[in-house]
């Protein structure tokens, strides 16, 4: 399940993973569900469903139901958007709360890695520290635009067997 603030690039990451393409459009997502077959490191194939949440945040009851049913979560922020970083922190804690345990597969994702220089507000160290020390979850930085680390993200997110 892909969660995070509006416009951080959730749909772009999804499209890069499924279609291997990047289109620079900013269409709002309500909630898109993708079916995909992946090959696991063990050699087995698994059928997975990925839910790209957008405006679902405006429907907390539905969002929380999806969280309750979900197996793995990518919580995305944009490295050039401080508010989205705070939203991601809140979202991770919210997932832990709903699941009632910290034993949940969460990957904190800093997207828009290509926005370097003055565009970047959240450093790699900052994201990594938060993930490892406070949230105790995995961490990856991606660029949906340049297709950096997108497959790595899904590898971390999905089960090994
Ligand atoms: N520079 C850059 N822009 C991106 C990246 N990913 C998404 N975007 C842009 O950010 C905007 C929002 O993307 P979208 O996928 O719709 O965000 P969502 O609301 O989280 O689904 C669009 O204009 C995308 O082209 C990225 O990795 N780098
Ligand atoms: Mg979207």
TrEMBL record:
It is found in: Cell membrane. It comes from the Eukaryota. Gene3D superfamilies: P-loop containing nucleotide triphosphate hydrolases. This is GTP-binding protein Rit2. Its main location: membrane. One of its GO terms (cellular component) is plasma membrane. GO terms for molecular function: GTP binding; GTPase activity. InterPro entries: P-loop_NTPase (IPR027417), Small_GTPase (IPR001806), Small_GTPase_RasD (IPR052236). It comes from Mizuhopecten yessoensis.
